[in-house]
Structures are given as C-alpha cells and as structure tokens.
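[step 3/7] inverse_fold.run input=structure_tokens len=279
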C-alpha cells in the first residue's frame, strides 16, 4: 500500500472526527524502539518520535527514548500492570485509530521490533480496517542485541546455518506447540522470547526431540541495558541457569553460543555449572 493509500476512509461504525472537523487525517507509525540502549534506535525511529503528537508506548521502552519526543507530545503508557487496569489489545487498537482519525501524528512505540512478538500486526490490521495510514519502522529485536552483547553470532559458518525466533510462552501461559523436531536440528540457533519461566520445559522438549543436552546455551537478561546479565549453560542445564533470574530475557540455544563471552575471555567450557558475568 502506498504511504497515503487509505487515508481518510472511514470504517463502518467509526466516526471520522478529523474529517468531520475538516482536518487532514493523521497516521499511525509502529516504531521499534530497540532493546533498550537509546543508541540502538534507528534514525528513522528518532525522526518519527520527534514528529509525534501522541506516543503510545509499552513498559519496556526506557525514559531516555521517550524523552526524544517533543515535550508537548502526549505520552500514554499501555504497559501491562499488575495492580491497575491493563489495556486490552482491542482497546489499544481503538485508541490508535481514534487519535489518527483526530488528525494526529501517532507513534506506537514498542520494545525491539514491532513485528517480532510485538502484536504490531494486529495494530496494522486495525488501522487498515479503519482506513488509517499505518507505517512500520523496524527496530533491533532482542535476539540480535543479546547475541551482539555476548559476542555470539546467531548464524556462524559451520556452527549455525539457520536461526529461528520462537516464543516460549503460549497464550494460555504454557509452552507453545512448536515444531520441536525441526528446532532440535543441530547447527541451528533457537532464539526464545518470553521463555525464562518455561526454560526447563523448553529444554526438555528440545532434548526429547533429539537436541544434544550438551548444546551451548545462553540467557541474556536486559540485553543492551545497564544491568545486562549473561548466563551460559548447556541445554541440559538451562533450567538451573534460569533460576532466580528476573526481567526481560532472551534464551539462545545453539552450537554458535560456544562463542559467547560471559566472562573476560571467550566462553569455551560449557560443561558444568552455569557461568555468569555482568556486562
Ligand atoms: C512481548 S516480547 C517483545 C519482543 C520485541 N518486540 C522485540 O523485538 O525484541 C517481550 C520479550 O522480548 C524479550 N526482550 C525484550 N527486550 C529484551 C532485552 N532488552 N533483553 C532481553 N530480552 C528482551 C524478552 O524475552 C521479553 O519477554
């Protein structure tokens, strides 16, 4: 769809406030904020933020990045909260569409990349259904930041011919129904999002499907942030390595993780207890 295609079309049942008042329609930009380090924001994301009138953001987006929007831009957190009302995805979709139809420049700011486990696709569909222009601006997804921080390439000649991004958390809170035999193939990196609490079950499924329990594995918590932590283990030791860790964490399983730096030197001995290093 061209950038202007769909602008100003009203979805059935929606009141087109911007048009009703003679305003130009606004638009929604789904912007990837990256994994946390503000320097990992793209220039395009920065420009979008600087032009925003409304910023609807997740909890993982740090204040330094939110501060890049104009001081008078409205900032709305739709972070999941334990104690207060959390916005349902349908409410977020409606909010984005309504602001755009008011004629506003809306930035939907998400951690990492908006289309990697970020529900950006649903927001895009909602905008399209309402005839609101919607553009996606990619961001550095957590798996890339985790591999980079640890000095462990997600693909590596002779050790990782493929990388697969999976979620470790199904909608019902259980381990998702993944294609375990294909994830268990050797020379392949599996990057697991939202897998800290299900790490043990994921490891069991991978090993039951044939992945070697000695496969090097890495957990990176808060990748690219000041409190980043990296814990290395074997696949068989992944559950023990995950114990006691908290925060957004990426699990990386694969032969190339033997290159991860979890201490001063390169990581070579993944047998035995988990090793930990602070960034
Ligand atoms: C809802 S998903 C969003 C992923 C995001 N769209 C992306 O592309 O990185 C949230 C999960 O991403 C991972 N994550 C996000 N930021 C992270 C970070 N800085 N370090 C490690 N993992 C992170 C964690 O697995 C977290 O539970």
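[step 3/7] decode complete -> sequence:
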């Amino acid at each position: 769809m061209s950038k202007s295609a769909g602008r100003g079309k009203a979805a059935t049942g929606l009141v087109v406030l911007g048009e009703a008042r003679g305003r130009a329609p606004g638009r929604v930009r789904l912007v990837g904020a990256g994994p946390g380090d503000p320097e990992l924001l793209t220039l395009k994301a920065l420009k979008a933020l600087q032009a925003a009138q409304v910023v609807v953001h997740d909890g993982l987006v740090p204040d330094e990045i939110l501060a890049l929007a104009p001081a008078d831009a409205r900032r709305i957190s739709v972070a999941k909260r334990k104690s207060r009302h959390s916005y349902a995805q349908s409410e977020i979709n409606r909010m984005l569409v309504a602001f755009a139809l008011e004629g506003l420049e809306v930035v939907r700011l998400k951690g990492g990349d908006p289309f990697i486990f970020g529900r950006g696709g649903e927001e895009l569909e909602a905008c399209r259904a309402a005839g609101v222009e919607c553009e996606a601006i990619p961001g550095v997804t957590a798996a890339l930041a985790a591999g980079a921080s640890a000095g462990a390439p997600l693909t590596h000649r002779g050790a990782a011919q493929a990388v697969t991004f999976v979620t470790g958390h199904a909608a019902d809170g259980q381990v998702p129904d993944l294609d375990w035999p294909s994830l268990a193939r050797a020379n392949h990196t599996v990057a697991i999002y939202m897998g800290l609490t299900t790490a043990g079950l994921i490891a069991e499924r991978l090993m039951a499907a044939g992945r070697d329990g000695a496969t090097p594995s890495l957990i990176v918590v808060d990748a690219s942030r000041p409190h980043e932590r990296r814990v290395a283990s074997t696949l068989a030791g992944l559950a023990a390595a995950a114990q006691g860790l908290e925060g957004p964490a990426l699990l990386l399983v694969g032969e190339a993780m033997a290159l991860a730096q979890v201490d001063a030197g390169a990581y070579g001995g993944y047998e035995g207890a988990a090793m930990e290093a602070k960034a």
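[step 4/7] annotate
The chain has two domains: 17-137, 142-278.
Residues 142-278 form a domain with the Methyltransferase, Cobalt-precorrin-4 Transmethylase; Domain 2 fold (CATH 3.30.950.10).
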